[in-house]
Prior knowledge:
The protein is 14% helix and 46% strand. The protein is mostly beta strands. The radius of gyration is 17 Å and the shape is globular. It has one domain: Clam (outer membrane lipoprotein receptor (LolB), chain A). A twelve-stranded mixed β-sheet has the order 7-8-9-10-11-1-2-3-4-5-6-12.
Amino acid sequence: MRKISFILFALVLGFASSPTLCAQDPDLLLNRLSEKAQTYSAYEIAYSSTLVDLKNDFELTQTGMVQIEGDRFHLHLGDYVIYSDGETVWTFEPEMNECYVDDMETMREEGMDPSKLFTVWEEDFRREWMGRAQVEGKDCAHVNLYAGEDKPYHTLQLFVDDAAMEVTRIVMKGREGSDVTYTVTSFSTTLKVTPEMFIFPKSKHPGVDMIDNRI
C-alpha cells in the first residue's frame, strides 16, 4: 500500500499569467499558479505516469484520471479505483474484489493527497529555478522543489508551460530509489459533481471484501 500511496500523491496541474513576469523567478511563477488554482471549484485531469524503480530494475507505465472537488477526489489508477470524501479513503481493486479502507489523515502523512496537487508547492519546499526544457513539444520553465525528510521523496521537478501557464509534467524523485513521472494529457474545469462520486459504492460490488486499516 505504501508504494500505491507514493504513486498516487502527485499527478499534474494547470493555470494563467504572463510568462515574461515569471521568467527565472520560481516564487512568482508558483504564486501565479496558486492564484489560478483558487478559481477552480471542481476539475478533472487525465495523465500518463511512469514509475521507475531503480533499486529493483522495475518500470511501469500506465494512464490515470482524477476528479477533484475541494478535499474530495475520485481517482482511477491502473488496476485501482480510489475514492475519498475528505475523511475516509477507499482503495478498490476490481480484479480481486477487495476494498481497503484508510483514514485520509494517515494517507496525507504518507505524502498522498491528490486534492492538494494545485497547491503542493505552498508547503515547506526550497525552490530553485533550473532553466528551460522541451516537454511534449512545449518550451517549459523547469523549477525544482526540495522536500524535508518527512516526505517519501526528496525532489519534485516541475515543468511549466509558462506561455499557457500550465504544468505539463511533474517528476517525483523518491528516497528509496523510485522515480515517478506524470505527464498531463487533458485538463477540464467543467466537472459535474454528483453526491455519490467520492464514496465507494459497496452495494454495486456484491461480495466485496472490505479490509479496514483504520485503528
